[in-house]
Design a protein that fits this description.
heterotrimer; A alpha/beta; B mainly alpha; C mainly alpha; A: alpha/beta; Rossmann fold; 7-stranded mixed beta sheet; 4-stranded antiparallel beta sheet; 25% strand; B: mainly alpha; 17 helices; 66% helix; 5% strand
Chain lengths: 271, 431, 462
C-alpha cells in the first residue's frame, strides 16, 4: 500500500494506457474553463471496436474529457483545450480540420434524451439528409430502417414512423437518439451517462444494446455506476480530479486495482 | 450486416465533398444576419441624422439689433404698466422709427415693407422688458428683435437672390434693406429665445414649445398620479391577495387585452365617456392625463407583478413567522423590496405616454392655444401634438423648429429611459 | 374652487377623527387596564377611514350627477325657436350657457342665454349648499359611529386591513371598468351608426365618401351623395401593413437569428438595445420623418426612373411603419429562439451540423410558433398605428394595390373625422365609431390568435 506522502510523486497513470490498434489517441490533453483546470495532462488510447468506460467521482472531469473527442467543447466559450487528440494520425484540434466531418465520424449520445421535435423518421433521417448520404428516398428509407434496427427500436415504431419522436417513452427516446447517431455511419460513439435519466428496465435494454454495438463501433461510455461499467465494457479508465489514475481490463480494475485511489473509489471510501 | 447503411469510410468521403457548399451556406446566413442588423442601424442613423440636421438650426434665429428710446409717455401712457396701457402705447411705432432711421425707406409702400422685416412680436417684447425692468424708461438701449421668418430663411440661404422676384417670397427692396442692416453689423445669429420660451404662434419666428412642454408635464403628472397607485394596487391585489378564481382570471384577461388595444381607441373612449357623458372640458391636461393613465395602466400592472413575483417567498415566510398579518407583510416587506422594479416599469410607461399623440388628438388637445396652461384645468396641448400640428406648416423655419421640438422630446425620452436603466442596474438585488 | 374647499374640509375633519379615535382607544385601554388587540394608530386609522371614505363617495357622486342633471333640466329653458332651428346643436348651446355662467361674455348674448345662465347659477348655489350639508352630516355620523365601535374587544387592525383589502380589490376592477367603458362607448355609437347605414354597405361598399352631410340619404332625389363603404379603408390598411411586413420580417428575423446564434456577447450587448431604440421613438416622429424625408425622397427617386410616386404614398408610410415594427419581430423572435433548449442544438452539432443547418432545420422549426406569433403581433400593431399614416399616407379613400399611390387607412379616417367639431348625431361622426369597432375586433382577434398559437405548440418540448 502506498502512503499519503507518496501521492505527490506519483504523476503517472497506471495500467494499459495504450492499445494495439487505437482508433483515437489522446496525448497530454488538458482542458481549462477560464483559469480552472478541469482535465490535467491525460494520455489514453481508445481501441478499435471495443467498449471502454470512464468512471470516477462526480466532477472529476469525465464528461469534459469525453466531449473533447468530438470537439463539443467548442460550443462553450470559456473552454480551452491543450494537447493533441488524433484520429488516423490527424490532430483533430488542428486549425485546418473542419469539425463537421469529425462529428459525423464520432457520434454522441447525451445524458438526457434529446430527440428533435420532429417525427421519428425525420429524427433519424436528419443526419443522412444534411450530409447528403442517401441517393434517393428509397436509400434514405433503408438507412432509417437499418439504424432503428441496430438501435433495437424498429419493431416498436414500425407503424408510427411519422409520429413525433418526443412522444416516446424515456428509454425509447434514448434508443432513438442512438439510432440517429448510427444513421451517419460513425466509427466511434461517445455516450455521456446515457442511462442516468432512465428507469432500470430501460437501462437494462440499453446496456444490452451497448454490448452488441461494441462489435461494430468503438464506444466510450461515461458512467457513474461501477456495476454498469462492469456489465457493458471490457476496459475501464478511472478518473479523479481531472487526472487519469488507472486504465485496465474492467475485471481487473474491480478486483485487483493497482492504484490506491482506484481502490478507494471501488470500495466506496470516496465518490 | 446489409448494404443499406454506408460504410464509415464512404460516408467520410461524401461528407468531405459536401463540406464546402455547406460552409458557404453557413457564411451566407451569417452575412444576411449582419446585413439585416446593418440595415436596421442604417435606418436608425438616417432618422436621427435627418432630425438633427433639420433641428439643430431650429434652436437658433436671426436677430436685428435696434436702438430703442424708452420714452415713458409713449410706451406706457397711463403710467401704470398695465396691459391696457401698454396695448394703447406706441411701442411698435418706436421700434419702427428706429428701424427707419437706419434703412430710410421712402414712401408708404417701402415703409410697409420695412415694417414687416422685424417680427410682429416687437411690441410684446418691449412690453415684457419694461414690466421686468421699469428703470429702462428714459434710457436708449439696444434691443435684439427677431426677424420675420421669410427674412430669416433668406439669411440662411433658402430663399435665394438669384430667383426672379416674382417667384420669391421676399422682394428686392426688402433684400436691399436687409443688406443695409447687415452692413451696419446689426444682424446676428443667436440662440433663439423663442423656441424654448415661446408658445404656439402662427408666426414661425415667434413659435416655441414652452406651452406644449408645460402641458406635457401637467398631463404626465396627472397620468402618473392616477396610474401609479392604481397600477401598484392592482398588481398587489392580483399577486398577493386574490385567490385564483374566475374573477381574477377575468381581470387578467382584461389587462392583457387592454395592453393590445390601439391607443386611438383609448382616445375615443375618453371622448365618449369623459367629454360627452361626464361633460368635462376638452383639451385640458386633466382629461388627457386620465386617458393616458388608463392606457399606461396595463404596462405598470404587468411590470409591477413581475417585480412582486421576484421577491422570494423566504422574505414573506420570515415576516409571517414573526406574526405579521398579510397586509403588514405586503406593505412593510414586499412593496419596498419590489419598488425598484415597479419604479422602472412606471418610468418606462411614462416615457411611452410622453410620446403619445393619437389619443390626445381624440380628446381635443389639438387646438391652437397660445397661453401657457397654469393648471390641469386650463386648456393646453402636449409636445407630440404640437409637433403634429407644426408638421403641416410648410415654412422652412417651421420645419426647423418642429425638428428642434422633436430633439427636445427625444432628449426627454432618452433621459427617462436612461434613468430607468440606471435604476434597474443600481437597485438590482441578487437574492 | 368650491369643490376644492369642500375636499380640504372633508380631509381635515377626517384627520380630527383620527385623533379622536386614538384618544378613544387610549381611554378604553386605561379603563380596562389591559393592552388592546391592535396598536393605537390602527384605531385612529379606523376612524379616519370610516369617516372619510363614505363621505368622499357621496361627494363625488353628487358632483358628477349634478352636472348631468342640470344639463337635462336646462333643456326646458331653451326657447322652442332655437331648438327647432336648422343648426341646433345642444353641445354648443350648453357651452354658450356655461360661458355665460363663468362670466366669459363676448358681445351681448341673447336674452334666453342670460336667463338660462342665471337659473343655472341658482341651481349651482342650491347644489353647493346641499353638498355641504350632506357631507357634513355623513362625515359626522360615520365618524361618531366609528368611535362608538372602539371598545375593548374591537380588533381595529383587522377592520382597517379589511378596508385596505377592499380598496385594493376595487382598484383592480379598474381594468374591467376600462374595458366596459371602451366597449360601451364604441358599441353604443356603432349601433346608432348601423341604424343609419346598413351593415353590408359598410362592410362591402367600395366608396368611402362621408363629406356630404345634410343631404337626405334616400327619397330626396340626392341619394348616394354620402357613402360609407369601408373596403378602400381596409385595403389601404392592408396594403400599408404588407409593405411594412416586407421590410420588418426579413430584417427582424435575420437580426434575431444573428443575435441569438452568431453574435458574440459584446455584439449582442451592443446591437440588441440599439434595435430596441427603434421601438421607443414616438410615432409622431416617425410620421414627421416619413412625410418630410422619406416621401420627398421616394418622389424624386421615382421620377428618375420615370415612375409617378404620389407625394403621400402608401410606400412611404409602409416603409417607415416597417422600420418601427422591426424591434417587435426581432425582440420577440430573439426571445423565442433563445428559449429553444440548448440540448437540441447540442444534438444537432453532435451529428455534424453546421450552424446554419442547426438554426434553419432544428432551432427555427422548433421556435416557429413563437416567431409566427410575433409576426401576428407586429401586424396587429401596424393595423392600429395612427400617426405615421395620418402624416404620411393620404386622406383620400383610394382602392388600389399600387403602393406608389396615396391611400388612407381605418385609423387615419378615425382621426380625420373626430378631430374638429363633431355632431354626435350625424352618420359621419358615428362612422368613426364603427371604424373603431372594426379596429378593436381585428386587433383583439389577432392577439388572441397569436396567444393561441403559442399555447398550442408549447407542449411540444415541455
Amino acid at each position: 500500500m502506498l502512503i499519503n506522502n507518496d501521492l505527490k510523486t506519483l504523476d503517472l497513470t497506471v495500467g494499459d494506457v495504450f492499445s494495439q490498434n487505437p482508433r483515437l489517441k489522446a496525448r497530454n490533453v488538458s482542458v481549462f474553463y477560464g483559469d480552472n483546470k478541469a482535465i490535467d495532462n491525460v494520455t489514453i488510447d481508445i481501441g478499435n471496436k471495443e467498449v471502454i468506460s470512464f468512471i470516477g467521482p462526480s466532477g472529476c472531469g469525465k464528461s469534459t474529457f469525453l466531449r473533447c473527442f468530438n470537439r463539443m467543447n467548442d460550443t462553450i466559450d470559456s473552454c480551452a483545450v491543450k494537447g493533441e487528440i488524433t484520429i488516423d494520425d490527424e490532430n483533430i484540434y488542428d486549425k485546418k480540420i473542419d469539425v463537421v466531418p469529425l462529428r459525423a465520424r464520432i457520434g454522441m449520445v447525451f445524458q438526457k434524451p434529446n430527440p428533435f421535435p420532429k417525427s421519428i423518421y425525420d429524427n433519424v433521417a436528419y443526419g443522412p439528409r444534411i450530409h447528403g448520404l442517401s441517393e434517393n428516398k428509397e436509400h434514405l428509407d433503408g438507412i432509417v430502417e437499418e439504424s432503428l434496427k441496430r438501435a433495437g427500436l424498429w419493431e416498436e415504431v414500425i407503424d408510427r414512423l411519422d409520429s413525433p419522436g418526443t412522444g416516446l417513452s424515456g428509454g425509447q427516446q434514448q434508443r432513438l437518439c442512438i439510432a440517429r447517431a448510427i444513421a451517419v455511419s460513425p466509427e466511434v460513439i461517445l455516450m455521456d451517462e446515457p442511462c442516468s435519466a432512465l428507469d432500470p428496465i430501460a437501462t437494462a435494454k440499453i446496456e444490452e444494446l451497448i454490448h452488441e454495438l461494441g462489435n461494430d463501433y468503438s464506444i466510450v461510455i461515461v458512467t457513474h455506476s461501477m456495476q454498469q461499467a462492469a456489465r457493458v465494457s471490457k476496459k475501464t479508465a478511472y478518473f479523479h480530479l481531472g487526472k487519469l489514475i488507472e486504465v485496465g481490463r474492467t475485471k481487473d480494475i474491480f478486483t485487483r486495482p493497482q492504484h490506491h485511489q482506484t481502490e478507494a473509489y471501488i470500495s466506496g471510501k470516496i465518490g | 450486416m446489409n448494404n443499406k447503411i454506408i460504410s464509415p469510410s464512404d460516408a467520410l468521403d461524401i461528407v468531405k465533398k459536401s463540406i464546402v457548399k455547406r460552409r458557404s451556406r453557413d457564411n451566407r446566413l451569417k452575412l444576411f444576419g449582419r446585413i439585416a442588423i446593418g440595415v436596421a442601424v442604417c435606418f436608425l442613423l438616417t432618422l436621427f441624422y435627418s432630425i438633427f440636421t433639420k433641428g439643430y438650426p431650429g434652436f437658433f434665429q436671426y436677430y436685428v439689433t435696434l436702438d430703442i428710446k424708452f420714452d415713458r409717455e409713449r410706451i406706457d401712457p397711463k403710467g401704470d404698466l398695465s396691459d391696457n396701457s401698454l396695448f394703447d402705447g406706441e411701442a411698435s411705432i418706436i421700434v419702427n422709427e428706429s428701424l427707419y432711421s437706419i434703412i430710410q425707406p421712402k414712401g408708404r409702400k417701402e415703409k410697409k415693407l420695412a415694417k414687416k422685416i422685424v417680427s410682429s412680436g416687437k411690441d410684446v417684447r418691449i412690453a415684457k422688458m419694461v414690466k421686468n425692468n421699469p428703470s429702462l424708461f428714459g434710457t436708449t438701449t439696444s434691443v435684439k428683435f427677431a426677424l420675420d421668418d421669410d427674412v430669416d430663411s433668406f439669411l440662411r440661404g433658402y430663399l435665394k437672390r438669384e430667383t426672379p422676384e416674382n417667384e420669391r417670397r421676399i422682394s428686392d427692396k426688402a433684400i436691399q434693406f436687409i443688406d443695409k442692416l447687415n452692413e451696419e453689423g446689426r444682424i446676428s445669429y443667436e440662440f433663439s429665445d423663442y423656441i424654448l420660451g415661446g408658445s404656439a404662434s402662427g408666426n414661425a419666428e415667434m413659435a416655441g414649445i414652452k406651452g406644449a412642454f408645460i402641458g406635457s408635464m401637467l398631463t404626465l403628472s396627472v397620468c402618473l398620479l392616477i396610474a401609479f397607485p392604481l397600477g401598484v394596487a392592482t398588481a398587489v391585489y392580483l399577486e398577493e391577495i386574490a385567490k385564483k378564481n374566475r374573477i381574477t382570471e377575468f381581470i387578467e384577461v382584461n389587462i392583457n387585452n387592454l395592453a393590445a388595444v390601439p391607443s386611438v381607441v383609448f382616445g375615443i373612449m375618453g371622448l365618449a365617456i369623459f367629454i360627452s357623458i361626464f361633460g368635462m372640458p376638452r383639451s385640458i391636461p386633466l382629461v388627457g392625463g386620465m386617458v393616458l393613465a388608463l392606457m399606461t395602466l396595463p404596462t405598470i400592472i404587468i411590470s409591477s407583478r413581475a417585480a412582486i413575483r421576484a421577491v422570494p417567498p423566504s422574505v414573506r415566510d420570515a415576516a409571517y413567522g414573526i406574526g405579521a398579518s398579510k397586509i403588514q407583510v405586503i406593505f412593510h416587506h414586499v412593496i419596498p423590496l419590489a419598488m425598484p422594479g415597479m419604479l422602472t416599469g412606471t418610468i418606462i410607461g411614462m416615457a411611452q405616454a410622453l410620446g403619445e399623440t393619437a389619443p390626445l388628438l381624440m380628446i381635443g388637445m389639438v387646438a391652437f392655444i397660445v397661453d401657457v396652461p397654469n393648471s390641469v384645468l386650463d386648456p393646453g396641448t402636449v409636445l407630440p401634438v404640437q409637433i403634429f400640428m407644426w408638421a403641416d406648416f410648410a415654412e422652412r423655419m417651421f420645419i426647423q423648429k418642429t425638428s428642434a421640438a422633436i430633439i427636445v422630446l427625444l432628449g426627454f425620452l432618452i433621459s427617462m429611459n436612461a434613468l430607468a436603466v440606471y435604476l434597474r442596474k443600481k437597485l438590482e438585488r441578487r437574492w | 374652487m368650491f369643490s376644492f374647499y369642500i375636499l380640504v374640509g372633508i380631509l381635515l375633519i377626517s384627520f380630527v377623527f383620527f385623533f379622536l379615535g386614538k384618544n378613544q382607544a387610549k381611554k378604553v385601554a386605561y379603563t380596562n387596564k389591559k393592552k388592546l388587540h391592535s396598536l393605537i394608530h390602527y384605531y385612529g386609522l379606523y376612524s379616519l377611514l370610516s369617516s372619510l371614505i363614505p363621505t368622499l363617495g357621496i361627494f363625488f357622486a353628487i358632483t358628477i350627477c349634478d352636472d348631468l342633471l342640470f344639463a337635462e333640466l336646462i333643456k326646458k329653458y331653451i326657447p322652442d325657436e332655437v331648438v327647432n332651428s336648422k343648426d341646433y346643436n345642444f353641445t354648443i348651446v350648453l357651452a354658450q350657457i356655461n360661458n355665460s355662467v363663468e362670466g366669459l361674455i363676448f358681445g351681448t348674448p341673447p336674452e334666453w342665454v342670460a336667463n338660462a345662465a342665471a337659473i343655472w347659477k341658482s341651481w349651482v348655489l342650491k347644489s353647493n349648499t346641499i353638498t355641504v350639508a350632506v357631507c357634513t352630516i355623513t362625515i359626522f355620523i360615520f365618524g361618531f359611529f366609528s368611535l362608538k365601535k372602539i371598545q375593548y374587544e374591537f380588533r381595529s387592525r383587522n377592520a382597517v386591513e379589511k378596508i385596505v383589502t377592499s380598496i385594493l380589490a376595487v382598484s383592480s376592477m379598474i381594468a374591467i371598468l376600462t374595458t366596459i367603458a371602451i366597449i360601451f362607448s364604441v358599441v353604443f355609437e356603432s349601433i346608432r351608426f348601423f341604424a343609419l347605414i346598413p351593415y353590408d354597405e359598410f362592410l362591402f361598399g367600395t366608396i368611402w365618401n362621408p363629406q356630404f352631410e345634410g343631404a337626405d340619404r334616400a327619397g330626396s332625389g340626392q341619394e348616394g351623395l354620402s357613402q360609407y363603404g369601408a373596403i378602400p379603408l381596409f385595403a389601404g390598411t392592408f396594403l400599408i401593413s404588407i409593405i411594412a411586413l416586407c421590410v420588418s420580417v426579413p430584417v427582424g428575423l435575420f437580426s434575431a437569428i444573428y443575435l441569438s446564434e452568431y453574435a458574440t456577447s459584446k455584439e449582442r450587448a451592443f446591437f440588441k438595445p440599439l434595435l430596441e431604440i427603434l421601438a421607443g421613438i414616438p410615432t409622431v416622429v416617425y410620421g414627421f420623418f416619413a412625410a418630410l424625408t422619406v416621401a420627398p425622397f421616394l418622389r424624386s427617386s421615382g421620377s428618375i426612373f420615370g415612375l409617378n410616386v404620389a407625394s403621400e404614398s402608401a410606400l412611404a408610410a409602409g416603409l417607415v411603419m416597417g422600420i418601427m415594427i422591426i424591434p417587435f419581430i426581432s425582440s420577440l423572435s430573439d426571445d423565442v429562439i433563445n428559449a429553444v433548449p440548448q440540448s437540441l442544438r447540442d444534438a444537432g452539432y453532435g451529428l455534424g451540423s453546421t450552424k446554419n443547418e442547426t438554426v434553419m432545420k432544428i432551432v427555427l422549426p422548433a421556435a416557429l410558433p413563437g416567431v409566427v406569433a410575433s409576426i401576428i403581433l407586429a401586424v396587429s400593431r401596424a393595423v392600429g398605428e395612427t400617426m405615421i399614416v395620418v402624416m404620411a399616407a393620404g386622406l383620400a379613400a383610394n382602392l388600389t394595390a399600387n403602393p406608389l399611390e396615396a391611400v388612407t387607412t381605418v385609423t387615419s379616417q378615425i382621426v380625420t373625422i373626430l378631430v374638429g367639431d363633431q355632431e354626435f348625431e350625424s352618420a359621419k361622426t358615428l362612422s368613426a365609431f364603427a371604424l373603431a369597432l372594426t379596429l378593436i375586433i381585428i386587433t383583439l382577434a389577432m392577439n388572441f390568435y397569436a396567444l393561441h398559437i403559442v399555447k398550442k405548440y408549447r407542449e411540444q418540448y415541455e
